[in-house]
Amino acid sequence: DSGVTQTPKHLITATGQRVTLRCSPRSGDLSVYWYQQSLDQGLQFLIQYYNGEERAKGNILERFSAQQFPDLHSELNLSSLELGDSALYFCASSSQMGLAGSTDTQYFGPGTRLTVL
Amino acid sequence: QKEVEQDPGPLSVPEGAIVSLNCTYSNSAFQYFMWYRQYSRKGPELLMYTYSSGNKEDGRFTAQVDKSSKYISLFIRDSQPSDSATYLCAMRGNTGFQKLVFGTGTRLLVSP
């Protein structure tokens, strides 16, 4: 058990809908990362938050957004869902900001499996 | 062309075999190299973490990095059925914020 929790485990919804995925980082970790994992693309970095502030963006669509709250939990919002958004969404946390020279280790949660019908 | 290439497998071996898993990469700025293990329907779990070139050993696992060839390897000695999982390589650079770039993973099956 990594100490990172994600809810829900599974989510089934329809195209055009909006969903919210939730992540609680390990105790003491300030950074939260969101990843999307699909069969053909592997793990793709979406976005990082550090202590409530957005720090880095990856391949995140404009229809997706995220935030990190004062208690450090994070939510990933996916809107106007399309069939191609079906994937596993992982949250990871680390204690540091992830900058140069740091041996920052990311610990992954169990993921949320999103199915868009 | 992807920044990190990894054979998807599956790689099937008998119990006790030595397993070699590999990744190649194109970005010479990568300095930190990791191997994650992912069981079915679970999140990735960090196995090995290496900085720059060289070898690192931890129990039955050995990670090797050859930066001149842009090639990294994970060796598993005395493989066990419980090692059956997908193995993901990941890497990042050393300036500013550097996102982790993952390979697509190699599925390993160890039969008893």
Q: Measured on Cα atoms, how large is the radius of gyration of chain B?
A: 14 Å
Q: Taking Cα atoms only, what radius of gyration of chain A do you get, to the nearest Å?
A: 14 Å
Q: Which whole number gives the mean pLDDT of chain A?
A: 91
Portion in helices of chain A: under 10%
Largest interface: A-B, 29 and 25 residues
Order of helices and strands of chain B: EEEEEEEEEEE
Q: What's the tally of helices of chain A?
A: 0
Structural class of chain B: mainly beta
Uncertain runs of chain A are none
Number of helices of chain B: 0
Largest sheet of chain A: 7 strands, mixed
How many angstroms separate the termini of chain B?
A: 37 Å
- By secondary-structure content and strand pairing, the structural class of chain A works out as mainly beta
Shape of chain A: globular
Oligomer: heterodimer
Strand content of chain B: over 45%
Order of secondary-structure elements of chain A: EEEEEEEEEEE
